[in-house]
Amino acid sequence: MESDSVLAIGAILAVIAMLYSSVGHGGASGYIAVLALLNVVPDVIRPVALSLNVVVAGFATYRFAKAGFIEWRSALPIILASMPLAFLGGGIALPVEIYRPLLGGLLVFSALYLLWQTSRSQTRFDVVSRKIPLLGSVGAGAGIGFLSGLTGIGGGVLLSPLFLISGWAGARQTAGIAAVFILANSVAGLAGNYVVLRSIPYEILPWSGMVLVGSFIGTSLGVRILPVKPLIWLLAVAAMISGVKFLFL
């Protein structure tokens, strides 16, 4: 890939990192959407998405933890249940005819979730103080962890709507748990993926620096409750287009 293309794509990925990190996500579904639209092969898409997720979710974890929005007693059991399955999923190389519809379906789901989330943005930072059920959250974490490693999506687009719809946590608490969940599972999925591929695309290095800048801006927006609704709508449309492409083209 030419240097100009690497920088141009990196700039787009940085904007995605900014948007997703504002709600505690790593941005994998957005990275996958862009790379898929550019016809990047799946063997490159998955390690790139997971690697950038580690960078962005790692910084988001730091910012949300510092702001007091991560309830570690609730997060740790979910993470411990999910990481082994994320590693297992990351080590599985799916046939294209299975990978494409699975990933396409998750991208469409993530787009619908983003649209739903922005429609309720006026209350998405409400604090809910209640005990998260251990059995249900651990079971969900394990299943989502496996899917995150298998597809390269960090799992936040599946975990967050579950917590919000179930009323297990308020949006800020959900964002904090999602950030640390995505970080842990992206590390595990990337490790499993590396065991299979034994290589990491070189573009990850410059892109990591660029998405780190995006995540700095995004987490500042999230912590300070600055709305980014119009931009998230555009991002949801991009994810939807990519998901449809994976499903039908």
TrEMBL record:
InterPro entries referenced in this protein's UniProt entry, alphabetically: TM_pro_TauE-like, TSUP/Inactive_protease-like
GO cellular component: plasma membrane
A Pfam family assignment: TauE
Subcellular location: Cell membrane; Membrane
Membrane-topology descriptor: Multi-pass membrane protein
Protein keywords: Cell membrane, Membrane, Transmembrane, Transmembrane helix
Keyword Nucleotide-binding: no
Residues passing through the membrane, by range: 7-38, 44-62, 74-92, 98-116, 137-163, 175-197, 204-225, 231-248
PANTHER family per UniProt: MEMBRANE TRANSPORTER PROTEIN MJ0441-RELATED, MEMBRANE TRANSPORTER PROTEIN-RELATED
Family affiliation: Belongs to the 4-toluene sulfonate uptake permease (TSUP) (TC 2.A.102) family.
Name of the protein in its database record: Probable membrane transporter protein
The species this protein was found in: Pseudosulfitobacter pseudonitzschiae
Lineage summary: Bacteria, Pseudomonadati, Pseudomonadota, Alphaproteobacteria, Rhodobacterales
